Automatic annotation (TrEMBL):
A GO CC annotation given for this chain: mitochondrion
One Pfam family from the record: Sdh_cyt
Record-given protein name: Succinate dehydrogenase cytochrome b560 subunit, mitochondrial
Subcellular location(s) per record: Membrane
Native organism: Patiria miniata (Bat star)
Domain of life of the source: Eukaryota
Main location: membrane
Amino acid sequence: MALTFRSVNCSQLLLRRLTPCMTKRVTATVSTWKDEQNKFLEKNATLKRPMSPHITIYSFPLTALLSGSHRFTGLGIYAGLAAFGVSVNLLPGDLASNLALVKSLSYGPALIFLTKLYVTWPFCYHYINGIRHMIWDTGRGMDLKSMYSTGYAVLGSSIVIALAIAML
């Protein structure tokens, strides 16, 4: 009983001490993110600090460019195959009649060659770079010199193979 009485008195004393803190109003001004951004930019201008550079001024290393292009070619191949599959199902007639229609348009050989190259190079590049990634999974070729040499080899061989396929 004495402990209960003591805990009630202590909690009431604590409540009396905290009551002034809880009843005071906060008078801080609220600012928006735009105000904060303007303050930051003004401060940097007065201190003559340079603006943060944009991504377009950076010179990316070959490894970063090849990594990004591997991802983009994979996405492009997927999107192209999905669009082809949907179009085959939605277009009237069968595939043979649609191919005959394209042949009847009699595009020039240069345009046909460029179209073939445009379609085959992402497949060749993504396939050869995928082999490079599988070799990396074994732990080989992870030093910077071999990454650059295999990167140039992937680019060169994918272009040569795509050109050979497009000439057929």
